[in-house]
Design brief:
mainly alpha
Length: 128
């Protein structure tokens, strides 16, 4: 006779990324006893997360977290958020460099610069 009290994992696969993100975020707000909702991380991403947490424990970075299956770190209290894609990014952080590591702020600044260039070129074309 099987043990009725044995806990078993229920794995749910969703086919809509937006709904999955909403579910994961809502699960953080609503705490249900014995129910946990987590993103499934690839082996590589999980290893990067563990390495980044080890850097946090050593005091190299201030914050480490995952969001939508991505590893994110913040080196300083008010510093930019850095997306960790590979071990080279972690190595750059250890060496105190940020070259080759795109932050969310840098990414948005690049998009702003591109849109300004496009609007400038459009306005010069209209003036001719």
């Amino acid at each position: 006779m099987p043990n009725k009290l044995k806990k078993r994992a229920v794995i749910v696969r969703l086919n809509n990324l937006k709904k999955k993100s909403k579910l994961v975020k809502a699960s953080r707000l609503i705490k249900l006893d014995g129910i946990y909702v987590n993103n499934s991380l690839s082996k590589n991403t999980l290893e990067l997360l563990c390495e980044a947490r080890a850097l946090r424990d050593k005091g190299v970075v201030k914050y480490v977290w995952k969001d939508e299956c991505q590893v994110l770190v913040r080196v300083e209290e008010k510093g930019p958020v850095i997306k960790i894609k590979n071990y080279d990014h972690l190595k750059n952080i250890i060496e105190g460099k940020r070259a080759g590591v795109n932050t969310r702020r840098q990414h948005s600044q690049k998009n702003t610069q591109r849109s300004q260039k496009q609007s400038d070129s459009t306005s010069t074309m209209k003036n001719k």
